[in-house]
Amino acid sequence: MRVFRNCLFFLGMAVRNSNFLEDFSPRAYLQSTCPLPMQSNITGTKPVKNTQRKALLAACVAHVLHDGYTDQLYALLPVWQSEFGLSYAGLAVVRALYYGTMGGLQVPGDKLIARLSPRMALTLATFVAAAGYLVMALPFGFSNLCIGLVIAGVGSSVQHPRASLLVTNTYGKASRGPLGIYNFAGDLGKATFPAAVALLLPVFAWRPVVATMSLVGMVVAVALLALVPRQPFIARVENKSAAKRRNGRGFGLLLIIGALDTSTRMGYLLFLPFLLHARGGAGTVVGLGLALLFIGGALGKAACGWLGQHLGVMWSVIVTEAATALLMIATLVLPLVPMLAVLPLLGIVLNGTSSVLYATVPDLAPKGDIGRGFALFYTGVIGAGGLAPIAYGVIADHSNRTVGIVAAALTAAATIPLILALRPILERNRQSNNEPVAPVG
């Protein structure tokens, strides 16, 4: 519970003090984007800002919990292997029950609850995920564990598209920065929940630990009822008639870029511990290297959303992906200490591109259906994240680790011609909307 309170406090400070939140939504902007009947009700920007902040904080809290739920499984897998006598392949299947359900149900889950308000959708999804962990904690054997994992995966499948849509609808054309903070919040959950579980497992049996994490989820579900505005302010994102005419080609390119970006990240993470060990790093040094990369990654997710809003989509992706490829190659030749110094910088660009790409989904969603666009995009990147380590592992098995890392770096470089091909589509969308959206590059 203390870990969650600290995350909530940190997110509250980030949301409250971020510059783009202070600069967004002047009276003139609201009057230019709201329907005429609503303009008479606009007496100031403070109520709108408060609604936006509450919506962003709610989305971030949900992201912290659900990403934390996903990654805390890594801390539980060794315990389950020992108790249930699972092989490594068996562990992969157990993890896939949650991860595969969560990824595979992004689109159908989003469609199923599309008629629910963001408040009820996020609350219900969080409650179902927490209920799944509660089922896991019941002493009814391995089959019960598997059922709980599937239930939790069903709940978590809804969070990404619904929370992203809430932020996009609330901030409209200025959603890139807030989506970067939302993206960053997930990394807080990935860092804190597995650490909390790892600290509790030596003291308590795994079932009470899982039950405790389920209780955290129940508390978050109740908190979301208070945090998500009952009637969130909805800013106009673009011309609806123009959005409905999209054929999905630009979105397909964006999805391929997102999948390649995720594949690069997962491939490098597969080899990094072995690369550090080959440089003479002991177990603590390997842990330090991973921590430095993850810290840089969290910073990159928060910062690159702002970068995309000011530098433009094309140049942001080119800069981050080119830097990713170069720094990955650099880690192959640098000694241990300089390599450790480079890892936070690599983390910034390795993770930061995802914030730029996620924030571009509303600009390219097929037929203007932003919720379905986010669901499709998350399905693609989650699938790529699951398959990429296998592919890079096969490459390394048939050659060596260096070739595997070079292949991951080349994957990052392969996104550059794709983003260049995407640029004219983004420009046409901007022209069809007759308004200046985020710069293209």
* Elements, N to C (H/E): HHHHHHHHHHHHHHHHHHHHH
Helix content: over 70%
Indicate the structural class.
Answer: mainly alpha
How many separate helices? Answer: 21
CATH fold-level topology of the largest domain: Growth Hormone, Chain: A
Distance between the termini: 44 Å
Record field, number of beta strands: 0
Features:
441 residues, mainly alpha, Growth Hormone, Chain: A, 2 domains, 21 helices, globular
Can you walk me through this structure?
With 441 residues, this protein is mainly α. The protein has 2 domains: 2-227, Growth Hormone, Chain: A, CATH 1.20.1250.20; 240-433, Growth Hormone, Chain: A, CATH 1.20.1250.20. The protein is built from 21 helices and no strands. It has helices at residues 2-17, 19-23, 27-33, 36-39, 46-71, 73-84, 88-104, 106-112, 118-137, 142-156, 159-171, 176-200, 206-227, 240-244, 249-278, 283-311, 313-333, 336-358, 361-364, 370-397, 401-433. Helix 6 (73-84) packs parallel to helix 12 (176-200), helix 12 crosses helix 18 and helix 16 packs antiparallel against helix 17 (313-333). The N and C termini lie far apart (44 Å). Residues 17-44 have low confidence and may be disordered.
